[in-house]
Amino acid sequence: MSAHERFEALVMPHLDAAYNLARWLARSPDDADDVVQEACMKALRYIDSLRGEEARAWFLAIVRNTFYDWARRNRPQEIVHAEDEVLEQVADEQAVGPEQAALAAARTRTLAEEVERLPAHYREVIVLRELEDLSYRDIATITETPIGTVMSRLSRARAILQQAPRLQEFSPSQGGA
Amino acid sequence: MEDPDRDAFLRERLRAEVPMHRAPESLRVRVRAMALAQASEALASEAPTSAKEDSYAPRGATEASSRAPRWRAAPWNWLSAGALAGCAATLGALFAIHALGEWRHSHDIVTLALEDHVRANREGTLVEVVSTDQHTVKPWLSARLDYSPPVHDFAAAGFPLVGGRIETLRGERVATLVYLRRLHTISVLVRLAPDPSIPALRSERGFQVAHASAPGIDCIAVSDLNADELSGFVQRVAQTGAAP
User: Fold this and answer.
1) Pick from A13, A82, B121, B198: CA 20 to 30 A from residue A109's CA?
2) Distance from A148 to chain B by nearest Cα, in Å?
3) For B80-106, what is each residue's pLDDT tens digit?
4) Rounded Cα gap, residues B97 and B94, in angstroms
5) Does the distance separating the beta carbons of A115 and B14 come in below 8 Å?
6) How many CA atoms lie within 13 A of B210 on its CB side?
7) Do A91 and A154 fall into the same domain?
8) A97 and A57, same structural domain?
């Protein structure tokens, strides 16, 4: 099989998943387009190194890396924040209950907007696990982090989303405070 | 903190309310065009001994023991004898071609078009100029030919333009447009003089060659796409490109 045929057979079936990940990371259709296109060029170049491992996780890892490289070039301010710093900032805003205006704004936010507000490291695990239904192992491969880190990021990302006013209204158990 | 019920509820709500973004068709086409072009480049940069080796290319010098290299090692008398034999063979072939006359004309061009498409696909040289934009492909072709072929994109009808190349058929340089239909690649040879001697459709070795012409344009489409779709498409290309 030529590189072109391998690309068609192994990579093209995952173009939707790649675009979904890029779109949620970049939060813009045009930027997602650029990221996926660049990732495809890399996938083509390195297709021969794909041996045995799962093509979807391999390709999504390329997409993710391409996004972070792209973001370092184009949106460095988004990357400089340490993730915990950003997390606290988001959590404070939602849990402590600041001014009424901010709270009112939060009430009208859709769940999609809540996901967009998550820091990138939390957003990506939510997208890969809850939307794409990937295993922890695959997510660990894609994000190049240990499975334990994936699980803790996922649980913290869920905790943030569960604080969203939109979910509070209908949540089955209001436990926690 | 972990609460399976709340997590399941969150997941359910996310799946119901958060959109899964699908790759736009334009991106899909661009990526496929890029893959075709990159395959061409990769092959072009390789030595002609591997993938390009076929009846058209010289055989690899590594196979020193086999037929062809004997000529290289041979003294002058062998070479001149070979040259003479070659001349005789060429003359013979010319006479034969001439004698076969006009009825072979259409057969030749259909077969040649088919062989070019198959070879370009196999060697990855299908697209020399990659662009889904007709305003990029047309000037590229015009700059390399003595005519300017009409170029249109049919993405809206499910046949996106992905680029073009120049084919040489019997010494004539011909504009060749490349389109996609799902996973099938289509080469469309575009010339300006309608040629009624070419049959509307021929199937050979799993490939179809469909022909259509209109005032000022002649199109030969080659693909492994089914005959109905290919015939419909080539007629559309000819009608759209017809002289006003």
Assistant:
1) A82
2) 15
3) 555 666 666 666 666 555 555 554 555
4) 5
5) yes
6) 22
7) yes
8) no
